[in-house]
Automatic annotation (TrEMBL):
It is found in: Cell outer membrane. Its main location: membrane. This is TonB-dependent receptor. It comes from Novilysobacter erysipheiresistens. InterPro entries: Beta-barrel_TonB, Beta-barrel_TonB_sf, Plug_dom, Plug_dom_sf, TonB-dep_rcpt-like, TonB_rcpt_bac. Residues 404-869 form the TonB-dependent receptor-like beta-barrel domain. PROSITE patterns: TONB_DEPENDENT_REC_3 (PS52016). Residues 1-26 form the signal peptide.
Length: 903
C-alpha cells in the first residue's frame, strides 16, 4: 500500500532543499557589472520561461502569493477547466494550514488554521456566499473545480476585504474573458469507476464527468464572453460499520468495555451535479469597465442504505457468553436473545445555488477610480430521510437469534456470525423487530439562505510619499436564513398489524455485508414498500426547535491606505493599514414550546444591534535575493452560528424545586455577539525566480470572547405556568452566551520547488510540501465545561505532492494528512452532532499526456486519475472508551480515465 512519509520528513525535505536551492541561486546571480540584456536576448529569455501545464498553475499561484499585500495562499488552474482535483474542496485542502473534512467520502468543508468552517467566510469573485448547510460553513463540493479558475485564501485581515472571517477568507474566482488574448474552447470528458463495485441493486459503480468552456472576445477586444458548464454523475459506494457504544457497567463482563450495539451497512449513492458559469465583461475605454458574472448549480443525491442493526449489550433481554477480554475490552464472545433490525433506508438531498454580481469600475483622470458592485445569492436544500424496518418477528414474539463476534484488534472492525439467514426473504417480515414503537420513520427537513449586497467604493492614487493610494467605501448586506424541520412521521403497518410479509414483487438484489462477516441481507424496493404504510405525523418539541429564521442586516464602512515605497535601493515596503466599522442588526423568529406541547407553540422574536471596529495592518518588506518578510496585525470577528442565534425556546416548571416549583428553559440566543480576536502573523518567504518558494510563518490569535452554553438567570414574566405557581418569575435558562476566550497559535512551513534548481538532470521534477502545527488554549465549553478539544482543530496537518512534467508527459502523486480532531457531522434524525474523527492520509495519483503543437492531435490531452488510491478509511472513535471505534467506513478508490481538447 502506498504511503508517503509526512510531518518531520516533510520539514526536513523543505529545509534541506531550501539550503541547496539558495546556494545554487546565489551562484547563478549575475554580477553587478554584468552588461544589460539586449532586446533580442530579452525576447529569447521570455520565450524560454514560457511554461504550460502543471508548472503554469504552480507559478501563477506563486505570483499571486508573492505580489499580495496580505499573507495569502493561492491555487491557479494550469488551464481553463483543469484544476487537478475532483472538487475545489480537495484543491483548497492542499494549501498550507488548511485541511478538509470528508463527508460521504468526499472533501467538503474546510478548516483554516485549526478553526472549524463556521469561523471562516467564503466569497465568490469577492462577494460573500450563502450556504445550503445548517450554519454558515460553505460545502465546497457544491462548486465544480472545472468552473473555478483560481482560489485565494486570505489569512490576515484586510480592511478593504468585506465579509472576511476570523480564521480566514476563501475567495473563489471565475475567469475574466478579456484577460485571454484569443478565443478558447475547451472540452473535457472522464469516465469514473468505484473500486467497491455495486453494493446495492439499482446503483451503478460507473459514472462520468463532462465539462465545456467557451471564452471569446468581440468588438476590438472591448467585449468578452465566458460560458462554462460542468456535469458530474458520480457513484458513491461505502462499506460502513458503526457501534452504538461500549458500556463498561454491563452484566456480561463487568468493568470491561463491551460492544453495546452494531450497524453493518452497505451504502450506494448517486451524485448528480450540474454547474453553469457565465461572465460578460465590457471595457469600451480606459475610463469604464463592467463585469456581470453568474453561477448556478444543482446537486442531487440519492442514497440507498441497507444494513443490519442489532442491539447487543444494550439490546434489552440479551445475554453474553464465552467472553474473551484483552486490554480491558471484550474482543470476542456470543450474544443470545438478539433481535436484529433489517433496515432498508433511503435518503435524498436536492441542493440549488444561484449567485450573480454586477461590478462597474469608473476611472476619473489619472488619480481617481470608483467601483459600484451589486450582488445576489440564494441557496436551497430539500431532504428526505426515510427508514423502513423488517426482522424475524414482532418484539412480543419469542423468536430471537444468537450471534458470535470477533473484533479485529488492528481496525476495531468486528466479524459477526448470526444463527439465522437474513438473505432469505421468507425468514423476514415488515415489522417493529426491536420494539422501538414504529415500523419506520420519515422526515423532510430543508434550508433556505438568501443574501443581497451592494458596495460603493473609491480609490485615490498618489505619485509621491509612502502611501500609493487610499481606498474607502461602504458595503450593505441583507441576509436571511431559514431552517425548517418539515413534515416528520412514524410509519405504521395498516390496520394496526404487527407484521406483514414482504411482497415478492418488491424484492430486489440482496445487500452484501460480508466485510463484517454477514453474507447478505434482504433488499427491497424502498419507494414501493413505502406505499404499504400508514404515516402518523409526529409532533415533538425537538421538531419545533428546527423551525427558525435568522436575519442579518450588516453595514460595513472601511478606509485603507495602501503602502508601496522603497526604503533603500535594496529594500522595499508594501502593505496596507486601515479600519472597518461593522454595524450589525440581527433578529430571529422562532417558537416557544411550553411544557413540551409542540402542538401549541407560541411565536417568539428577538435580536440585537452592535458595532465592531476592526483595525488591520499588513506589511511586506522586500529584501535582497528575492526575500520577503511579512507582518500582519488586526482585529477579527466571526458572527455566531445560525442555530445559536435562533429564537426557539423550550419552557417548563421543575416541580421538584422549591415549594411551588421553579422555571426552567433552554434554547437559542438572538442577542449573541460575535467571536472576536486579535490576530498577529509573521511570515518569512524566499522565492526562487518566480518558479518556487519557501515560507515559514507563525500566527497567534487571542480570542477575547467565545460562545458556549451557559445557565443564566432569566425572567419568565408573561409565560403561562399552567397548573404550576412558581414563587418567582426568575428561573434558570440554558443558552449560548458570549464568555471567556483563549488563544490559538501555531506555525506553518511550505516549500514549492522545481528540482532542476538543485540539479539540472532533474529537469521536469518538482516537489510541493507543507506542514502546520496548531495549539489551542481555548475552552470551547467554557472554563468549567471540561477538556473537550476545539472543534475542527487538528494539531498536525501536512501535504506533499511530487510531480514530473516534460515533453507533454505529466504525472503527480499527492498525500494530505490530518491528525485526529473533533468534527461535526449529520447524526441521528438529521441533526448536527460533534464526533471525534481519527487521523487520515488521503493519497491521489494522476498521469497524463498532452499532444504537442504541430502534431495532428495538438490540443488533445489524455488523463488517468486515481483518487484515494489506498482506500483510506474514515474513522470515528469514542474517547471515553479507550479510543474504541465508533464508525469505520471504506469508500473505495475512484478511477477516472478521460480526455480534454482545447482549440
Amino acid at each position: 500500500m502506498l504511503k508517503l512519509k509526512r510531518n518531520l520528513l516533510s520539514v526536513a525535505l523543505a529545509s534541506a532543499t531550501l539550503m541547496v536551492a539558495t546556494a545554487v541561486q546565489a551562484q547563478s546571480q549575475p554580477a553587478d557589472d554584468a552588461p544589460a540584456p539586449t532586446q533580442e536576448s530579452q525576447a529569447t529569455e521570455l520565450d524560454r520561461v514560457t511554461v504550460t501545464g502543471i508548472r503554469a498553475g504552480i507559478e501563477n499561484a506563486i505570483e499571486t502569493k508573492k505580489t499580495s499585500s496580505s499573507i495569502v495562499e493561492s491555487i491557479s488552474a494550469e488551464d481553463i477547466g483543469k484544476l487537478p482535483d475532483l472538487s475545489i474542496a480537495e484543491s483548497i485542502a492542499r494549501l498550507p494550514g488548511l485541511t478538509a473534512q470528508r463527508v460521504a467520502g468526499r472533501a467538503s468543508t474546510i478548516s483554516i488554521r485549526g478553526l472549524a468552517e463556521n469561523f471562516g467566510t467564503t466569497l465568490l469573485n469577492g462577494r460573500e456566499q450563502v450556504s445550503v448547510g445548517h450554519n454558515r460553513g460553505v460545502e465546497f463540493d457544491q462548486y465544480p473545480s472545472e468552473l473555478i479558475s483560481a482560489v485565494t485564501v486570505y489569512k490576515t485581515p484586510d480592511a478593504s476585504l468585506v465579509g472576511q472571517g476570523l480564521s480566514g477568507t476563501v475567495d473563489l474566482q471565475t475567469v475574466r474573458p478579456l484577460a485571454f488574448p484569443e478565443r478558447v474552447i475547451s472540452l473535457n470528458v472522464r469516465g469514473e469507476h468505484n473500486s467497491l463495485g455495486e453494493l446495492n441493486d439499482g446503483y451503478d459503480d460507473m459514472g462520468y464527468r463532462v465539462s465545456g468552456s467557451y471564452i471569446d472576445q468581440f468588438a476590438d477586444d472591448t467585449l468578452g464572453v465566458a460560458i462554462g458548464y460542468a456535469r458530474m454523475d458520480s457513484p458513491g459506494q461505502a462499506e460502513r460499520w458503526e457501534s452504538w457504544g461500549y458500556p463498561s457497567d454491563n452484566a456480561g463482563a463487568p468493568g470491561a468495555f463491551l460492544i453495546g450495539g452494531s450497524k453493518s451497512q452497505a451504502s450506494s449513492v448517486e451524485n448528480i451535479r450540474d454547474g453553469l458559469m457565465a461572465v460578460i465583461e465590457y471595457k469600451p475605454s480606459d475610463s469604464y469597465s463592467s463585469v456581470l458574472d453568474a453561477y448556478y448549480s444543482t446537486f442531487d443525491k440519492s442514497e440507498t442504505l441497507r444494513f443490519m442493526e442489532t442491539g447487543l449489550a444494550w439490546g434489552g433481554g440479551t445475554s453474553l457468553r464465552n467472553a474473551v477480554i484483552e486490554d480491558g475490552s471484550v474482543v470476542s464472545g456470543a450474544f443470545d436473545g438478539v433481535r436484529p433490525v433489517v433496515r432498508n433506508d433511503k435518503n435524498t438531498q436536492d441542493d440549488e445555488i444561484f449567485a450573480a454580481g454586477w461590478r462597474n469600475e469608473f476611472t476619473f483622470g489619472p488619480d481617481w477610480t470608483a467601483v459600484a458592485d451589486v450582488s445576489y445569492s440564494k441557496a436551497e436544500r430539500s431532504e428526505m430521510l426515510l427508514e423502513t424496518y423488517s426482522g424475524l418477528g414482532h418484539v412480543s414474539g419469542t423468536r430471537t437469534d444468537s450471534v458470535d463476534f470477533v473484533i479485529d484488534q488492528g481496525t476495531g472492525l468486528p466479524q459477526f456470525s448470526y444463527g439465522e439467514d437474513y438473505a432469505d426473504p421468507s425468514n423476514l417480515v415488515l415489522t417493529d423487530p426491536a420494539g422501538w414503537g414504529q415500523a419506520g420513520f420519515i422526515k423532510y427537513p430543508g434550508v433556505e439562505d438568501e443574501l443581497t449586497s451592494f458596495r460603493l467604493s473609491a480609490e485615490r492614487s498618489f505619485l509621491d510619499g509612502i502611501f500609493s493610494s487610499v481606498e474607502f467605501g461602504l458595503n450593505y448586506a441583507d441576509r436571511e436564513k431559514l431552517r425548517k424541520s418539515g413534515f416528520e412521521g412514524f410509519l405504521r403497518l395498516p390496520n394496526g398489524a404487527l407484521e406483514m410479509a414482504i411482497p415478492t414483487e418488491m424484492l430486489t438484489g440482496n445487500a452484501d455485508l460480508s466485510f463484517t462477516g454477514i453474507p447478505g441481507m434482504v433488499g427491497y424496493d424502498i419507494d414501493r414498500v413505502l406505499g404499504l404504510y400508514e404515516i402518523d405525523q409526529h409532533s415533538h418539541q425537538d421538531i419545533a426547535n428546527k423551525n427558525w429564521t435568522v436575519n442579518e442586516k450588516i453595514a460595513t464602512g472601511f478606509v485603507q491606505w495602501n503602502i508601496n515605497t522603497d526604503l533603500s535601493d535594496a529594500v522595499s515596503l508594501r502593505g496596507n493599514v486601515g479600519v472597518q466599522v461593522v454595524r450589525t442588526d440581527q433578529s430571529s423568529d422562532g417558537l416557544i414550546v411550553p411544557f413540551g406541547d409542540a402542538d401549541n407553540p407560541v411565536p417568539l422574536s428577538g435580536g440585537d444591534e452592535y458595532t465592531d471596529i476592526l483595525p488591520s495592518l499588513n506589511l511586506a518588506l522586500g529584501m535582497p535575493h528575492d526575500q520577503t518578510l511579512r507582518f500582519g496585525l488586526g482585529q477579527q470577528m466571526a458572527r455566531p452560528r445560525m442555530d445559536d442565534l435562533r429564537a426557539n425556546q423550550n419552557v417548563s416548571v421543575d416541580a421538584t424545586q422549591g415549594v411551588n416549583g421553579e422555571w426552567r428553559g433552554s434554547g437559542g440566543n438572538p442577542e449573541l455577539q460575535p467571536w472576536r480576536a486579535t490576530a498577529l502573523d509573521v511570515s518569512y518567504e524566499k522565492y526562487f525566480g518566480g518558479r518556487g518558494y519557501f515560507s515559514l510563518a507563525g500566527f497567534h490569535k487571542d480570542l477575547q470572547s467565545y460562545i458556549y452554553n451557559q445557565t443564566v438567570a432569566y425572567d419568565f414574566s408573561g409565560y403561562d405556568p399552567r397548573e404550576f405557581n412558581p414563587d418567582s418569575p426568575i428561573g434558570e435558562f440554558t443558552t449560548p452566551q458570549n464568555g471567556e476566550g483563549g488563544i490559538l497559535y501555531g506555525f506553518e512551513t511550505a516549500l514549492s520547488i522545481p528540482l532542476d534548481l538543485l540539479w539540472q538532470p532533474l529537469d521536469g521534477f518538482g516537489v510541493i510540501t507543507s506542514y502546520s502545527r496548531t495549539k489551542s488554549a481555548i475552552d470551547p465549553l467554557g472554563p468549567d465545561g471540561g477538556d473537550e478539544p476545539l472543534p475542527g482543530l487538528s494539531e498536525e496537518v501536512s501535504n506533499i505532492t511530487v510531480y514530473y512534467e516534460k515533453a507533454g508527459f505529466s504525472t503527480r502523486v499527492s498525500q494530505r494528512h490530518r491528525s485526529p480532531f473533533l468534527g461535526e457531522v449529520q447524526g441521528f434524525g438529521g441533526d448536527r452532532q460533534k464526533r471525534y474523527i481519527n487521523s487520515e492520509d488521503i493519497v491521489d495519483f494522476q498521469v497524463g499526456y498532452a499532444f504537442a503543437e504541430g502534431t495532428q492531435l495538438q490540443g488533445l490531452s489524455l488523463l488517468l486519475q486515481v483518487n484515494n488510491i489506498t482506500n483510506e478509511p474514515y474513522r470515528e472513535y469514542f474517547p471515553d472508551a479507550g479510543g474504541l471505534p465508533r464508525i469505520y467506513n471504506e469508500y473505495g478508490r475512484q478511477v477516472l480515465l478521460g480526455a480534454s481538447y482545447k482549440f
